[in-house]
Write the structure tokens for this entry.
Amino acid sequence: DVKVTQSSRYLVKRTGEKVFLECVQDMDHENMFWYRQDPGLGLRLIYFSYDVKMKEKGDIPEGYSVSREKKERFSLILESASTNQTSMYLCASSPQGAYQPQHFGDGTRLSIL
Amino acid sequence: QKEVEQNSGPLSVPEGAIASLNCTYSDRGSQSFFWYRQYSGKSPELIMFIYSNGDKEDGRFTAQLNKASQYVSLLIRDSQPSDSATYLCAVNMDRGSTLGRLYFGRGTQLTVWP
């Protein structure tokens, strides 16, 4: 069965902190994705990766960076957290190919105070 | 600009009725289409996918695709209160790409009342 694990379900941080969100998948998927989801705005793609050390910007990359040192792990980094980054963060993975669905982790609800 | 449009709802139907959820997309060359269900406070889960024009049935769910009209829909027959959720339409609009990027609509909120 597909398993995408996000390191924290809830996280509270302070403005200006550097924040790391971790995601691990056990399906040997090539593609991994980070989204944020806000009421009324839907899912917005932050960054995605199609291979180790490869990354592509999504629609809202400002204020974020990512790291993929191993195939199974994709990290999202908030360089200097701000209150407008309070959101639900969702990680997803998929195999390579145009007909593959994405499988989501349980999400991390991040609050920046 | 690649866009996926859904009626935000809320859509409210009585138990046992057919719920019809609609989605349009901007890119004519789109290849694959997915429906996700998201319960409040939970992450999206895949319920249907469709690649070819026509209907695809899976239990109480039917996905319908019309590429000429750039339209995909989800029908839920015999709706149950447990179907109450937000339904997300997702489309792969990057023709020729294997990167698997999906473009999501904002979702339609469905309420099934007893």
